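Aim 2 progress update. The chain analyzed this quarter is reproduced below.
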Amino acid sequence: MSDEGIKSPPIEPQEYVGGVTVIDFGDLRVARGLTRRPVRTCRHHAMRYDPRERRIWCADCETDVEAFDAFTLLIEHFDAVQKKARRMMDEAKEAQSFQLRSIAAKKIDEKWRKRNMVPACPHCHAGIWPEDVDRMGLVGKEYDAARRARDSKR
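Predicted structure tokens:
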């Protein structure tokens, strides 16, 4: 057989002759929609700073933290603390309003516990019996406050 019938693979030019090609994996990550730097396991919760060196680093993993990352961590922490404070204020307001209802209920309950007496209406001074509670209606707070203010002027 002759060598003319066997075809050899084409020769591909290699770039290492002209120097080593360096691939930046950061560019590949950005092209895929990821961040330039891979996510680390350390969340840098123990950040320290040195104003003389103008450097921020993590005391846990002892690596430098970029200014933007440090700023983001601070903002996330501040936002979480602010949301927690708002939630606590809302809970305190709710507890306070519940406590006012509870105090009023305790006072009425005290009056109902008297053996020979029943609570009286503050306006007509007629007794309020347990069966009267089922027939009680509701009045708007603003309406009743305005009526009381008008009646107190007379």
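The two ends are 130 Å apart (CA to CA). The chain has a mean pLDDT of 80. These observations will guide the mutagenesis experiments scheduled for the next reporting period.
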